[in-house]
User: Fold this.
Amino acid sequence: MIAELVDEIFRRWEEHSQRPDWRMVGLFVARVFRGGGDADAEGLDLGIGLVLTLLALPGGFVSILLFEKYGTLLQWMRGATNIDPFASAVPDEYFFITLSMAVTGAVAVWRWDAIFPDRRDYMNLVPLPISTRTIFFANLVAVLFLVGLIAIDVNLASSLLFPLVVGATQNSFFFFLRFAAVHTLGVVLASVFSFFAVFSALGLGMAVLPPGIFKKLSPYVRALVVFYLVTLLCTSFALPDFLRRLPGSAPTWTRLLPSC
Amino acid sequence: MLEAVHLTKRYASLPAVQDLSFSLRPGQVLGCLGPNGSGKSTTVKMLTGLLQPTQGVVQFDGHNIQDNLADYRKSLGYVPEEPNLYPYLTGWEYLELIGTLRAMAYWNMQRKIDSLLELFSLHSQRHASIGSYSKGMRQRILLIAAIMDDPAIFIFDEPLSGLDVTSALIFKNLVQALGQQGKLVFYCSHVLEVVEKVCTDVLILRKGVVIAQDSVANIGQILGQSLESTFLHLVDDVDTMSVARDIVTVMKMKAA
Assistant:
């Protein structure tokens, strides 16, 4: 019974994977991880598994480090006995949002050349009996799949561990669920926003600028995006406290910061 | 039948090809010759549907290929000059990808890939990534990709670049065999000797204009010379020996 079911699933998967549109989605997904532009021919091929593991690590490590802040024994030793977990989690939540944006944005910048079809795809795919529309939609589906995959991967560890750490002082499981849901939503959306921000900058540049100028400007735009993301991440430890102490309404420059 | 009817292509008002007309019948192997910048690549791109002509049409069996490019490309096997393949795929994976995208039946595709890899001496390296292949091996992968779906039309753009002597000989015989099978073959090359050997007809381009079009035998007879001499006579009336001597003279110049 189970063997038949497995066979049936395997057969259906084989059928689907042999459909031209799905094969092309697979090709576009693979090129993001395993090389896209001409320069990638001799590039570093880390493999999908290793890349996903590396992306998932920062959120997990930071969550574990935060045990020190939220541990009940350490709080008791510090003399803090009545702590509002929501209020004390706000700066950390801001950090996780910036971390999520920085990691996802960095991936988008790193694979900048491989997100859209390039000359190699033109040479290989256009002479085949498939319409340009099919190529476009396959690329779109691949990009959406990647955004989902990266957003989940980058935030998976922190979505489980951080609510556990914060909720360690609480007796209610409902607290954990509520906190985890809101935290996961916040960081996943931050990831998605960050990826599409880079994606839009890339798409706009390609659409508006002549190819030669775009190629020359591309490294500068990428450097600017990386600089912004690193600045955001580096200031995330001090910024929430700084903002709390600001008198009156928030200044205009705070619009450059992520908020939720 | 594949027909080019008054094809003209201009890039920013500069003409690359002007009023090019020819027809390619089943069984005909048409060689396309011309010096650099004569419009060969532009012609190939228009024939494959990669470029739209500024004027004129390419017709296959009486239909404009631009009306249904996907259908036309199902009948087309194209080998470009540069083997710009996906370096992270293996030879087998690449051919499987192309076969799937050409909607070939799965088991037929597997069998053909296996046999063709064997015949092109690539079977032992079929699971190695294309990034580790030599240019000749990549070119052979492109050849397999072009022929494995048994298309009616073949367009070869400098297909011998990078091939070793044995593979080149196999390929030359293959082109002749394709012609005998009633396929339409358009063969673009700089190598006059190969065109003379494998093509039934020849088209000579200069500055985007057809300057000669006839069977290989007739073109030679017109001037009573070999195709090489005829080509040089028609395209560039240059004394190549004299130019070679001048180059050596300049090379040997000493500082005054």
Remarks:
- Residues 2-244 of chain A form one domain.
- Chain A touches chain B at residues 18-20, 23-24, 27, 30-31, 34-35, 38, 40-42, 45, 119-120, 123-131 (CB under 8 Å).
